Amino acid sequence: MKRAAIGVRMHSGWGALVAVSNNAGTVEVIDRRRIVVIPPGTPGAKQPYHFAENFELPKAEKFIASCFTASKRLAVAAVREVLDELRGRQYRVVGSAVILASGRALPPLSKILASHPLLHAAEGEFYREVFSKGCEDLDLSVTGIRERDLDESVRASFGKAATRIGKQISTLGRSLGPPWTLDQKTAALAALLVLANKQK
Predict the structure, then answer these.
(1) Is the pLDDT score of 200 beyond 70?
(2) Vertex 77: Cα angle to 76 and 82 (nearest 5)
């Protein structure tokens, strides 16, 4: 079986997922899709912290926890589907990567609910955690890579080949067609890093 890894860049309620393999220095995108992790018809599920902003703290905690459980279930189903499809095509997924933000620790929920910028930060973290915990439930290792550290990590892992690999990723959109935006490029690079580090 050929080795592969998946990377994802999450947004509110969805993520751009890319699966790659690296065959003798040639990067191959073997799957890419938009995964949706909000249950349809649930009011407030897309932005749970915003929705819970004016709730009493116990009610807010309960609502956010309930949204997390529902979203994680959808993430597990989406990742399992990718793993099954790739296994059917003779690929073994050796790990996954999730693109992280700056990585500052969030304060307690009461402080988050009182600050609009923190609501956005918490929701970003919420969906990255949904994907990570979903992968863990499937016994798929997860590597968190801060977006601002991505280029440096690629240089550290690939050395002189880093520039060539970066160009390969940037221009893949020509052969693959859209969408091939920053979402897919960063997810693909993160997945490549997982592949490279799993060989060591």
Answers:
(1) no
(2) 95
Q: Which helix (H) or strand (E) holds 196?
A: helix 182-198
Q: What is the number of structural domains in the chain?
A: 1
User: Please, are residues 137 and 83 in contact by the beta-carbon 8 Å criterion?
Assistant: no
Radius of gyration, alpha carbons of the chain:
18
| DSSP sequence for 36-91 | E-S-TT-TT-SSHHHHTTTS-HHHHHHHHHHHHHHHHHHHHHHHHHHHHHHHHTTE
Residue 6 domain boundaries: 2-42+68-101+121-198
160, two tokens: 């002189």
Phi, psi of 119 (to 5 degrees): -60, -45
Task: Among 50-54, 64-68, 70-74, 196-200, name the one with the lowest average pLDDT.
Answer: 196-200
Whether 178 is in a domain gets the answer yes
Tens digit of each residue's pLDDT (9 = 90 or more) over 96-134? 999 998 777 899 999 999 999 999 999 999 999 999 999
- Residue at 182: amino acid letter: L
- Residue 60 maps to a domain: no
Core vs surface per residue 18-39: b (16+ CB within 10 A) or e: bbbbbeeeebebbbbeebebbb
